[in-house]
Design a protein that fits this description.
The protein is of the alpha/beta class. It folds into two domains: about 250 residues, Type I PLP-dependent aspartate aminotransferase-like (Major domain) (Aspartate Aminotransferase, domain 2, 3-Layer(aba) Sandwich); about 130 residues, Aspartate Aminotransferase, domain 1 (Alpha-Beta Complex). It is built from 14 helices and 13 strands. Strands 1-7-6-5-4-2-3 form a seven-stranded mixed beta sheet, with helices on both faces. It has a four-stranded antiparallel beta sheet with strand order 10-11-13-12. α10 crosses α12.
Amino acid sequence: MTTLKLPTNGVPQEKLISMMRDFRADDSDWKNAKTWSLVYYAGEGLTDLLKEAYGMFFCENALNPMAFPSLRKFETEVVAMTADLLNGGPEAAGNMTSGGTESIFLGVLAARERARAERPQINSPEMVLPTTAHASFYKAAHFLGVKPVTIPIGADYRADVEAARSAVNDNTILMVGSAPCYPYGVVDPIPELAKVAMERGINFHVDACLGGFMLPFLKRLGHKITEFDLGVPGVTSVSADLHKYGYSAKGASTIIFRDASFRRHQYFIHTDWPGGVYASPTMTGTRPGGAIAAAWAALKHLGEEGYLHLASITIETTKKLIEGINSITGLRVMGKPDMSTFAFDSDEVNVYLLADAMEARGWHLDRLQLPPALHLIVTQSHSGIVGPFLEDLAAATAELTKQGKTEATGMAALYGMIGTMPDRGAAHEIVLGVLDDLFKHKPQ
């Protein structure tokens, strides 16, 4: 690694801010809706409110909720409002987390610890999850020593219930379903899956990180949505991200349990430390007060009316995009998405080359694999760019169709190679190299 030392003298504030603005020049243009993931933008008005709320509690630390009763109020109220939205009863309990990965991690942890307490004969815990479950479950499995047992999806891209039933055994501590799954935007058959878990007395976690603050409002707008939340018998926990369709500041998610008896298994307590009694409800120690305060402000400011309005704009925009993509020769949307995230593929063109061509036009689309596809997460901010996006997509598709087969380069070549390698260990090594290179300091 190239040595980089602290500057001998501090950089003046104005110069520093100017430098930082320059560094942003090559970042994705999310404010003008040119990205289809990562940022959920509901306009400058809400963003200004979130900045003010976050800044007000910028220095506070929710590690000790007794020191900052305001943060305790914000967190408990955010959890209560989220639990109500997800049909949790009066016994529902939960916490805020730093994001969906931590919420999912805690769902797996709680299941493992419950099994340790109630089924100590299990030495090799397993969890059953569909191939479309978020990669964070595999990350949690890696850290927590839980074996992931993957089940297939059906032609509709939803989890196969009978495969799940067959996969459950005496070592199973957790079953998982998505609402919706990230790749295809469809809700798994949660009632049927949760029934299997309930029959076996094991935890069932619903990953609603994407849908937790969208699906309930779509239901209220009259859309038919598979039941997915704590109102479903057998569901023991749900994760829902506030910094996605809750439109809060980054670093805010929730995990909600059916009751406190399930939540107790996620806690860490150490009573024999010279530094005092250490008790932590989530994975992190220090917890930024700003993220908690901003989440509370977003929920209170938008309210049901605000979220219904945003959901209505978003789903109508999604419909226009799906219709438009399906009308482009050679492209097709995969399955029948339940909300505002979906994928499309093609038998006519290399979709990775198509993604590169769209990036050259200023659009950033996520790439999927197994099979190759492109991915969109739609927000209300995309409502004004449907026409220009579809025009560019149609033009780029037509150009690639005329070119016929061409050798892929750049990201298209990388994804194409990784997605088709039969040796997944070799694919793993390639990605390790990419990560090393990404986080290597490169002097400019």
